[in-house]
Amino acid sequence: MIQCVTITEPADKFTRNLSLTKNIKNIILGWINNTEPTSPNLAWMVPSFSGQSPEKLGKNWMEYQGIKNWEGLLDPLDDNLRGEIIRYGHFVEAAYRACNFDPSSPSYAMCKYSRKKLFHLSGFSGTGYRVSKYLKATSGIKLPNWVDKAPKWMSKQSSWIGYVAICHDQREIARLGRRDVVIALRGTATCLEWLENLGATLTPLPNIKHTCSTICCPMVESGFLSLYTSKIDAQQSLQDMVREEIARIKKIYDGETLSFTIAGHSLGAALATLTAYDIKQFFRDIPLVTVMSFGGPRVGNHSFRYHLDKQGTKILRIVNSDDLITKIPGFVIDNNDNKFAEKSGHWIQKLVEDSQWVYADVGCELRLSSSDSPYFNGINIATCHELNTYLHLVNSFVSSNCPVRATAKKIMHKSNNNVKCT
Length: 422
Description:
The protein is α/β, with parallel strands linked by helices. The chain has one domain (78-332, 356-405): Alpha/Beta hydrolase fold, catalytic domain (Rossmann fold, 3-Layer(aba) Sandwich), CATH 3.40.50. It contains 15 helices and eleven strands. The protein has a seven-stranded mixed beta sheet, with helices on both faces. Strands 4-5 form a two-stranded antiparallel sheet. Strands 8-10 form a two-stranded antiparallel sheet. α7 (222-229) packs across α9 and α8 packs across α9. The longest helix is centred in the first third of the chain and has 20 residues, at 13-32. One of its GO terms (cellular component) is chloroplast.
């Protein structure tokens, strides 16, 4: 069996690289000898912030943020892009670890840590970022009177959903080629958040109702929109908090090159898409807003996708083919389903695609599969959706034509030199 180890940041760079090399070698040997554990803790297999490549993104940073829709970077997966995806995934993981998920606690669904200590206490020291604002999401569901007698966790309408963090470390700013601003959003936790997830009806975006027609109205899932825009009494909506903080950051760092990256998993990925759309609509002078979406459900219809593309919002959807959450809500006809196209004569497919009531996938896709990893025995619905699973798959993926296990064997045996992974 492979011994699981925790990768920490050694004092010296040589020791760090040696530690990573030994760890990777053990993983590969395990693949070849079929000695992988049956119930793996995938987190230890994913590089920490300190394991990042020392290469600078420099002048190419906009390409890694999707300015050219990640053309030529996804298949095979570019190593710098791999590192960036994992790095942003860790920001989301920190949001999960910092949230209090104990229903018996008086601070249930709130953040356990102060802004200053969030990264350290979540196990992600050395990010080079500082948390500047905490974010909350509020459910707009009207609760019945009897809920007053139910446990408090059932009626928790406002909950801590994530944070905004700004890169402050000059070495990291130099490596990234700009000052980066991250918005990290966790997935579903509270009872009302789950209920909002079930609100699969499409509703028009409120800020462009006057431009809607019966054909081209951009619409999004009502529950996601509710969590993004709802407010209670003096409690700001998530939308208000994001707009306020972005405006403050733009004013403080006026004249600097900034990037805005919104990373989220599951529900957080859906909210990240809405947040990105809203930022581009509200702040017309921001040139580039990027979304790193991990296991996100569908958010809106074809018209919504069109508006995202038109405003220049860049979305990288990391999708596990075995994850059911990425296939809901609604339905989408697979454009590659030739049998369906032949039988329908294309007209049914076109009718569905033109309908405002049908969900559409957005952005660019990095498609992975749990089935390609030797660390999964069978398909477990819950495991396939976990953030750690996604980070493990990103870390392992080479290309669509070069499976992980086959690549490992070639490396270790130094054979098949005439076969190249492309």
